[in-house]
Amino acid sequence: MILADKIIRLRKKLGWSQEELAEKMNVSRQSVSKWEGANSIPDLNKIIMLSQIFDVSTDFLLKDENEEFEVATEAKELGINHITLEQATEYVEHKIAMTNLVSKGVVLCVCSAMPLFFFMAMAETNRFNMTGDIAAALGIVSVLILVSVGVSFFIKTNQYQDEIAAIEDEPFELAYGVHSVFHEKRKQFRPAYNLRLSVGIFCFIVSFVPLLCVSIFSFEQDIVLLMIDVLLFIIAVGLFIILPVSAKYDAYSNVLKEAVKETETTRRTKRAEKLAGFYWPLLIAIYLGWSFWTMAWGITWIIWPVGAVLFAALVGLMELLHKDTP
Q: Which CATH architecture has domain 3-79?
């Protein structure tokens, strides 16, 4: 690694622009640009200043070794993890294993209410001599059991936190050849990712169709309750399809992005994901509560298009507020 590359990496590690580094060095931005473009070399006094500003040795700045061992040593001195092919592969495996646990937990939590609605439907038709009180008791017990098991899966994910932290939470660089290997892996995986993502999204879209049809054409409450079970089941299937495949694709992308600074697009996506994390479950709860309270299933479906428009408006408002924040 030559001096120009080291200056670029050290500057970016500290989050400085060329102008900021130039100001600290008492030189022009053009001088810094020439250093980083290898069009000129700082004099000895400037080398000493750079070593002091970046808190590295002058030997580190001046040596140009390119061997893998030297690159790893340089990365360590910079406080950047040096990720080998084996480490990157293990990260992807741990990420997938952790997401499999999360997927199981999410599916169990989503499906936890299914026994409750099933028992309530049985009570509506007096099948199995089931009363409303018995149905409620059995349903609540089932919810507690399934949610407890689901939470246990979430807790188990902690065992993978340390293994994935080196790539997800800390700056790093890849050993020689790792980038090309994972770029090819992601390229080969993309068709399967797109297909499964499409199937999962399709599940989400059609999950409300049975309930809407029953709400419009039938007023039998037991059928409505059973269709809610169908809705929850289809959503669970969609989540079980999307979560693992998304985690694998994201793991490949995380390896490839190295220590690149988070883009504004990524930050916007994360803000929208945080909003969606509580917005849509809340909307589902409001929909079910309103529908059961009024039993006007043929009307309450309007909450979904209104909710979608409101969600888009909230995301836009978040971006406006974020831009106004210094």
A: Orthogonal Bundle (1.10)
